[in-house]
Amino acid sequence: MTSRRDFFRNAGLAGAAVAAGAVSRASLAALPEPVIMEKADTQPPLLPPNGRPYNPVVTLNGWTLPWRMVNGVKEFHLVAEPVVREIAPGMKAHLWGYNGQSPGPTIEVVEGDRVRIFVTNRLPEHTTIHWHGQRIPNGMDGVGGLNQKQIPVGKTFVYEFVARRPGTFMYHPHADEMTQMAMGMMGFWVTHPRGRHPLIDPVDRDFCFLLNAFDIDPGSYTPKVNTMLEFNLWTWNSRSFPGIDSLNVRLNDRVRIRIGNLTMTNHPIHLHGHEFLVTGTDGGPTPKSTRWHEVTTDVAVGQMRQIELLADEEGDWAFHCHKSHHTMNAMGHGVPTMIGVDHRGIAKTIASLVPDYMVMGERGMADMGEMEMPLPDNTLPMMTGTGPYGPVEMGGMFTVFKVRRDQKPGDYKDPGWYRQPPGTQAYEWTGPVAQPARRKSEGGQSMPASGSVPASEVRVRKPRGHSEH
Ligand SMILES: [Cu+2]
Question: Could you tell me the distance, in angstroms and rounded to a whole number, from the CA of residue 298 to the centre of ligand 1?
Fold first, then answer.
């Protein structure tokens, strides 16, 4: 029997890191007491209180699960359960996750560690956990029906294996997988190398997060689990911009970022201002001869990518998925392209029927980033966020990589907005602007136009049965 005090002493929860936002639930005899996280904020790294030493990771808008050491075995307790996750300020979702949040806590161990993971099922249906990417005994691989019986509602199963290979991994159910992953059940796993590894360089900051996606109708709370492609919330660790914390580093820090994709589509992840190397996949560290510099790397479905860079350019650098639909929140789809369409006439008519009707997108969509639009409760604006110079017009899979000269080693706090040195920002030209010379005939040299081409005309049909040019 382990009391709450014993558990905390054994686990040696160093610092306020986890203790601050965590509560412990009352005892399950002989099991490590589950530690529950109540906050969606990025928690500071959990320094290993015992076992082999390692340099811990920081999980974006997440945390690392404490363990207890029993006769040389690291024991963890995961509780699969319904959770309320704040996707961003102003929107909460009813998800399924582990230990109070979705995704679940990151599990950090060291190559060669023997780990024992108790998994308690508090969901309304059975579940399992698959330890994606790891070399483990077949009976521990977690595919329900194939490797084990599913964990029934209310029961606890035990997984035990040696973390044989260092690298970047994840965990997720392999039971009613479509539903359980669409509801947010997943977590990150990092196995640190034991001592110096020829392909794993030490870094100053080591971040990790999962790419995930939800389909939650504006005004509702529960994801539609049958959605395959048309998700409306693109998230990093179940958070959407501006709810995703920035990655804060010190100038000239060596930085590693580990990314896993558990959505149904690929995400080209793009960093501004720096080049990086892909130093690892879920197959382990990449041979050095295979590494080349990139600024965007595609993370395909079910893959993990580990990137590394030297943060040697000060500033606030955008870091985002390069699919522009993935840097928008709900309402981004089903809005017709209205650029160039003059609908002054109909706006009044519709407004008499629909009081809150607004004309959208006549001059592009940028207005959406600053408009005060009436939204249903519990949803996020499509394009949002405010920077030091105005609306950022983003959402979804977007955040900021903040490189600062005066950020202290080990300090992960947001330093605020970057102050650019005078004379280093794009500025308005106030001199004369010459009209550009325009080509008179279509086609150019290779396909000269024969004869004159009539100007094309678009016919726009408007309501009330009449049409105009
Ligand atoms: Cu994407």
Answer: 9
Domain range for 310 is 1-331+387-419
Q: Quote the number of domains for the chain.
A: 2
Split at pLDDT 50, 70, 90, the class of 218 is: confident
CB 130: neighbour CB atoms within 10 A? Answer: 21
The DSSP annotation for 176-228 comes to: SHHHHHHTT--EEEEEE-SS-BTTB---SEEEEEEEEEE---TT--S--TT-S
Using the mean position of ligand 1's atoms as its centre, give its distance from the Cα of residue 97 in Å.
22
Record the pTM.
0.82
* C-alpha separations of 20 from 42, 44, 164, 230, 315 in Å: 12, 11, 32, 37, 30
- Residue 320 and residue 303 share a domain: yes
The burial of 323, by beta-carbon neighbours within 10 Å (0-12 exposed, 13-18 middle, 19 or more buried), is given as middle
Whether 467 is in a domain gets the answer: no
CB 177 within 8 A of CB 96: no
What's the CA gap between 213 and 183, in Å, rounded?
Answer: 9
Q: Same domain, yes or no, for 364 and 312?
A: no
C-alpha 399 to ligand 1 mean position (Å): 13
Q: What is the 257 CA–ligand 1 centroid distance (Å)?
A: 16
**Cα(384)–Cα(91) distance, rounded to whole angstroms?**
13
Predicted confidence (pLDDT) per residue in 7-66, tens digit: 434 444 444 344 445 545 544 458 888 999 999 999 999 999 999 999 999 999 999 999
Whole-Å CA distances, 80 to 46, 105, 144, 439:
22, 11, 15, 65
The whole-angstrom separation of Cα 18 and Cα 129 is 24
Q: Is the pLDDT of residue 374 over 70?
A: no
**Which residues make Cβ contacts (< 8 Å) with residue 462, sequence separation at least 6?**
343, 345, 346, 468
Cα 189 to ligand 1 centroid, rounded to whole Å: 22
Q: Are 285 and 279 in contact (CB under 8 A)?
A: yes
Among candidate residues 322, 351, 378, the one where a domain is terminated: 378
